[in-house]
Amino acid sequence: MKGIPIRTTRSYKMARVFPTDVNSYQTLFGGKLMAYIDDIASIAAAKLSRANTITASTDSVDFLYPIYMTDSVTLESFVTWTGRSSMETFVKVVREDLKTGERQIAATAFLTFVALDDHGRKAEVTPVYPETEEERKLHESAPVRAEMRKQRREASRTLAEFLTKSYPWEPQEDSHTDGQDA
Predict the structure, then answer these.
(1) How far apart are CA 158 and CA 143, in angstroms?
(2) Does the keyword Hydrolase apply (predicted)?
(3) Is 52 within the bounds of a domain?
(4) What's the domain count of the chain?
(5) Within a domain: residue 32?
(6) Is residue 171 one of the residues assigned to a domain?
(7) Distance between CA 60 and CA 87 in Å, rounded?
């Protein structure tokens, strides 16, 4: 099989949840977890590409269970699929209650990264292939997610053309009229 095994991109991050990491509900700030997710996913992408990488999209972050101050959080990331210069990365977040040892999948995420050469141009990446059942399921379902990303990106571009760029304190311009008074 052409490419390299997905396992070579596996990356891990572990942290304890401290009082400064939680919100008013005493659970881990979603933004803090999202920063952890982007960080570990970028490492997995760089391990595959051995190049600079940029986050092209955060396709999804699904928060499944709250993470408390009595927990540790472990993130596992790996590249599930590649395009020419893009890489889909998967992140699994496991919360562990440090008093009981109970573990749950607290969140999952998919992000897309693009490899760049030293001149900032897109760089080709090596394809990956799965070996485990978990890797196979994610690898086989990746083309469907890639098509959804493409459609969502086009919808976002269309929406961006519609949105105003002025600040609230500036005179508002209506970009949706043809210059005629109503």
Answers:
(1) 23
(2) yes
(3) yes
(4) 1
(5) yes
(6) no
(7) 15
